[in-house]
Structure formats: C-alpha cells, structure tokens
Amino acid sequence: MPDLFTPITVGPYTLPNRVFMAPCTRCRADADLAQGPLNALYYAQRAGAGLIITEATQISQAGIGYPGTPGIHTEKQVAGWKLVTDAVHAKGGRVFAQLWHCGRVSHHAFQPGGGAPLSSSATTKPGLVTLPDYSKVPYPTAKEMTVDDIRATMADYRHAAECAMRAGFDGVELHGANGYLPDQFLRDGVNRRTDTYGGSIENRARFHIEATRALAEVWGASRVGVRLSPSGTFGDVRDSDPKATFGYVVKTLGAMGLAYLHIMEAMEGDGRNDGKPIEGYESIPASYFRPMFKGTLITNAGFTKEKAETYIRVGWADAVAFGVAFIANPDLPERFRRGAALNTPDPATFYTPGEKGYTDYPFLG
Ligand SMILES: Cc1cc2nc3c(=O)[nH]c(=O)nc-3n(C[C@H](O)[C@H](O)[C@H](O)COP(=O)(O)O)c2cc1C
Prior knowledge:
Structural class: alpha/beta
Strand content: 15-25%
Low-confidence stretches: none
CATH class: Alpha Beta
Shape: globular
Radius of gyration: 19 Å
Strand order of the largest sheet: 3-16-15-12-11-10-5-4
CATH superfamily: Aldolase class I
Number of domains: 1
Bound molecules: flavin mononucleotide
CATH topology: TIM Barrel
Helix content: 25-40%
C-alpha cells in the first residue's frame, strides 16, 4: 500500500514522495513582475517536495489581478523564472508553473490600454480590488469576451506555455480553480453567455478544455496538469450543480492523458458569504471524483500528515499538496518523515515584500 514516501509517476517523471507544494501567491515579484534570486532561494529551499507547483503566474498583461504577482510572458520574466528552475533542479527538485488569468478579478489599472478586465460575461465581482499602489477600490464590471478575445487568450496560454518551457520548467498547471477566468466560464452563477461558451455544461467547460489543449500543444498532455475547485466559492463563483459540472470536466480532461488533475477540497471560508452559510452549498470530497479519473489525482486544502496518509492509503488521492505548511516549513517532507514538529506560519507576511516570512523559516536542526 503506498504511503507519503512511495515514489509516484507524474507524466514522464518519477517523483520521490507524494508531499507536493501547493501553488501559493507570495507577491514578491519585482516592478516588471519578474522573479529574481530571492524567489529562486525560496523555491530551492522547498525542493524536497515531490513536486513544486509555483505560485499563480500571469499568462499576459490582461491576466494580472494583483500587485507583485509574477508573469511569464516577457523575456525578463522568462530569465527570472530560469533562476528559479535552475535552483530547484540543482537541489534535485521538480517544478511546474501554474498559469493564471484572473479575468474579472482585476481592474483597469492592470489592463493593457486601461481597458476593462475580461470575463465570460459582464459581471462585477463583489468586494474591493487592491490596485498597483496598494489602495483599494470596488471591482469594476468586466467586459464580456468576444470569440476573438477568447481566441487571443488561447494564444496567450500557448505563448506562456512556450515561455515556461524556455524558462526550464518541468511542466505547467492550468489554474482552472478559485474563481479565476476558466472558472468564470465554467460556473453558471457567473457565465450568462448564450453562444457556444455558455449555457450547457459542455459549452461552459469549453474554455477549460481549450486552454488545457493549448498548453498540451506545447508541452504534450503528459506534462500538463489542471487545478479545479469544485467546492470553491472563493472569487464569488457559484454553480447550480457542481457535481454534474465538475464531473463532466473531470471525465473530459481525464480522457486527455494529462500529467495529473489537482482537485481541491473545500478551503476555509468556502460555502460562506460574509460569514453566513450560502444556501444550497455542497462540499464535494476528492473521493467523489476518484472513480471518474484513472490518472494521477492530487488533492489539497486543510490536510494534515495523518489525513494525507489516509487518503493515499485508501486511494482517494495519489498525492497531497500542502500550501500554508510548505510556506512555513521549507523541509516539510523531512519533518513528516521524522514526525517532527512544524513551524508556525505567519499570515501577516504571506503577501509582503522581502525575506521576512519568505526565506527565513527555520529548517530542522
Ligand atoms: C498565501 C496563499 C497564497 C495562495 N495562492 C494560490 C495560488 O497562487 N494559486 C492557487 O491555486 N491557490 C493558491 N492558494 C491556495 C493554496 O494552494 C491551497 O489550496 C490552500 O492554502 C489550502 O491548502 P493548505 O490547507 O494546505 O494551505 C493560496 C493560499 C495561500 C494561503
């Protein structure tokens, strides 16, 4: 029976353990949204992960939604990420880039030519957006993407995938989760389109599937993963029938021979709005999707070592990604192996610049 330290195959790679690093935005890119030596050190410190999935990384300027988050569409950004991949490989690690388009979770201030952020439909995300100068204003109403906008975005996914290859990554993950652009197409609470990208589940899933294909054209499907959040309400996305919607996506992507599917369970805060329960909300465990997908299944969100071991032993997942625990414990797999205590995370420094709370968490002994 496999445990957390049984090697695992992901696409063409044999990885030494099943303790993966979940994508975690840290907002420490430079003014050109490029990574540098400090980011390389941070990722290299965590190279003991079976697989590192990087923080969400924009495929284009139109994909930006937060200050300080890195991109992978300019030469400087490719060079910055190359420092990271070289440093991780020098320590024997493997790293996939999480490719991201925020869609409506953005503002004119980030967009090319000061245009409106793009989404499946002209909706407005509730809440406040943090601008490049760190002031906060309400989210603007998004522009409904034309079919030409969608085609251009698919070209951006392809271009970013090519940039990721030149930057030395081992593969790429489509950020299909957490209320960002692909999720804004998938969920009927946001997607109000009446064309071939809206209405039926097949139509709403088209964006996810085309974006995955765009990445696979560059990398081959066996080096592409996809992250999904069937239980997620982050980003104010809702779906009237998440089991049917995500079941279709899992089965369709499952037939593509991907490196993995990364299916999140509910995160803290999911299913609640301003602290109040969302009516009809349903949390769907990874085990629900297991029979639908024969490939490598990663799960995540709120796992302890013990819970991860149970999932892997029972077969509900093949690997577990850890977010906050990896932020605070660069040597997390080794701590799990030895049954050692974990460092305490400092949420105040999750998104602040510099080394503090980034590269200064202590290693064991
Ligand atoms: C600081 C922080 C940044 C995050 N950034 C991302 C991200 O860039 N992409 C993503 O898919 N999820 C992101 N997440 C979600 C994590 O990948 C993960 O799903 C979440 O932390 C729950 O897992 P955990 O309980 O192991 O931390 C972020 C979470 C945190 C705490």
